[in-house]
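Lab notes, practical 5.
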Amino acid sequence: MTGPLAGLRVIELCDELGQLAGKLLADMGADVIKVEPPAGSTARAIGPFVDDIPGPNRSLNFWYHNTNKRSVILDLESDAGAAAWKALVSTADIVIEDQSPGALDRLGLGHRSLLRGDSSLLPPPRIWCSITPFGQDGPWADFQATDMTALALGGPMMMNGYDPTDAEGAPPIRGHGDQGYNTACHYAVQGVLAALLHRDRTGQGQHVDASMHEALSSTTEVGLPYWFTKRVNVIRQTARHAAATRSEPWLYLANDERYALIFGVGRDNASWNKIKEWFQSEGFGLQFDEARFGEPAARQPARGTTEAAEILAEVGRFIAAHPADEIYRGGQERRQSWGVVRAPDEALADPHWEDRGFWVDITGEGRDDRPVRMPGAPYQFSETPWELRRPAPKLGEHTAEVLSELPR
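Output from the prediction step:
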């Protein structure tokens, strides 16, 4: 087994809210045992499905979020299931669960019952992470939330949307891709890793209370600082940061009907001179040599300067005369953070990811002979390489195997 967390055992009792946390630990080498009820995790019912045929082992969403895990079926409301759960927990370094606050403790199986109960059940110090919409206590602790409502309540949705000129009166927009769930999981994993460091240093385990609401509220970029310091709400803008005042566009249509997105123009004089030379060699931006364009502050968007407005208007004309990839590569050559808005098929064909071995092919029910390409390692370790040890497990695939490993 490889990975920096090899040798650690994680028990995961999670559906769609917390399953990414288990995946992140599993993909780093931990032995993650996914405990599911007899009907399976509700995450198995989330599409899309292989060949559009629903089934507990055919969810592509589940395939991605559960690589490198083993699946065990336990009925926690039965005596046998409860006993097996306690035995599993006794072998674990980490427990991750996303059940409603108090739900497991009402069965005598939660962190309050087991971490502070019969110490004979828990020989080594243990880390228990609970991932919930609003945390374990407080007035909203028992409220329910989906990814969408969490993004709304936490603040990120208010900051995403369109300029009035693009879509007058447009409401806030939800960023797709389970961003609320995944943000909560990233923070939960940070908490677990910090708790592991604490355990290694002190020998003490602890409970990590991860709230999706708080995780999202801490990722609203400039929204909270503007309100705290100036009592000003930021405004939504197409394809760029929300801001207290409307800034110039960053998204421009190229002559091949693809969009280029630019972030800043000539923030320093060295890069500005390269941009000027490029534009002027093709007859654009001939006024840029005027002294009024010489100060970086005058060139920056959202400052309200006529110079910034002129520069970005000329940028739009320049991009409209070129293919998007030429703008991307030309900007990068001149140290500009510019890119192309890609469709999924273009991203899949990216040679940079191919060269780094980013993609993995995953098989499963209905696709045993036609692997599905999915994202692989988001990082590379020099000594403990990322490895796809197994695809997402079939429901209960490892029940007998895991239960046979339990102490008797």
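Observations recorded by the TA: The two ends are 25 Å apart (CA to CA). Residues 118-123 have pLDDT under 50 and may be disordered.
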